Amino acid sequence: MHVVIAGAGPTGLTAAVELARLGARVTTLEKRSGPSYLSRAVGLQPRSLEILRPSGVADALLREAVGFSGITFHLRAEEVARLPLGFDAASRLWGLAQDRTEAHLETALTHYGEIVRYGVEFRGFSQDAKGVNVETGDGHLEADYLIGADGVHSAVRAAMGLEFRGRDLPGTWSIADVDAEGWPDPTRFQGFLLDQGDVLVVVPLEESRFRVISSREDALAALPVPMDIRRVRRRGNFTVSVRQVKRYQEGRVFLAGDAAHCHSPVGGRGMNLGIADAADLAQRIIDGSTDGYTETRHPEGARVLRLSERGRKMLNTTSATRRGLAIRAMKLGAAVPPVGRAMVRRLVSG
Ligand SMILES: Cc1cc2nc3c(=O)[nH]c(=O)nc-3n(C[C@H](O)[C@H](O)[C@H](O)COP(=O)(O)OP(=O)(O)OC[C@H]3O[C@@H](n4cnc5c(N)ncnc54)[C@H](O)[C@@H]3O)c2cc1C
């Protein structure tokens, strides 16, 4: 069996590793000329590690990842609540820059004898009952199946003629990766509620290296507490869309990951959702049960979009009532441990 995958982000690489592990031949096309050095997603959920355990990728990730010890919430500079993380399997959350996750997936792929074809773009496809003909920047490929894991601006989705329903959120978010010394509680995930309904988070990436993300245009300028920054490794801006396709499949062609759905980084779920789509699809292709793919993964995508939007609206709000409720919930979680543990489990694994 031969499967062509468009896109070597975490979704495409997971699909490639899982298909190769289960015995399929895969061709992974990536339009970039080489591996990515962008560290967008950080949070690795327990379910993703479970999925990546049989290929050995989970162990490799855990050797490098930071295990978050807790979450601290602040209102501007003032601490309002501390919740624990890692007290049971469903509450463990690890941090690792996305480029490192991708590097470990790619190493596993080469162990199965497959490589990523960098600099080769997906251009189009035609299909019939027997297979798919894939047009690339380098010629044509015959395949049994095609997976579009080519991200938010998916060319596979466009070639399928599917609408990416949803909306673009107003405003520009910002991100910065920094080296900093003396940051208090360097293994805790720190969330800050700012004025005018804005939010900011500081996420540990490795010892003395942190990610700062904010709904404001300049994350470092928006920091409400001092940070002794020694080096800014990268900074940039991004906009947020909340969208999902109605169907993930058209005959022998499938969508997975950001090509099928996207949402705000609140809750840190995008990459984890893509990894789960990819693993489900790989198993279905091997088992010959692809017809249930949309029925299984679309509701899960819709659920995560709802959850992420609920969290974003609760934190990223100009309503004093909503914000007051969010702060009361955080304080309640900190004061009543069973409530706090339930909140954390939902946040991490829900
Ligand atoms: C600032 C920020 C922070 C985030 N934090 C988190 C987090 O903490 N946790 C989390 O789970 N998620 C997070 N996310 C979301 C996460 O980064 C994405 O959900 C994830 O990258 C999606 O993976 P993907 O493989 O589906 O798509 P992508 O990572 O976008 O990969 C798609 C790949 O396809 C390639 N491609 C595109 N077109 C073609 C073509 N025509 N032919 C061949 N190749 C093509 C692209 O070059 C790219 O390499 C964050 C996102 C942002 C922006």
From TrEMBL:
InterPro entries referenced in this protein's UniProt entry, alphabetically: FAD-bd, FAD/NAD-bd_sf, RIFMO-like
* Record's keyword annotation contains Repeat: no
Q: Which cofactor does it need?
A: FAD
GO MF = FAD binding; oxidoreductase activity, acting on paired donors, with incorporation or reduction of molecular oxygen, NAD(P)H as one donor, and incorporation of one atom of oxygen
Keywords assigned:
FAD, Flavoprotein
Q: Which Pfam families match?
A: FAD_binding_3
In Swiss-Prot or TrEMBL terms, this protein is called 2-polyprenyl-6-methoxyphenol hydroxylase
Query: Organism, per UniProt?
Result: Marinovum algicola
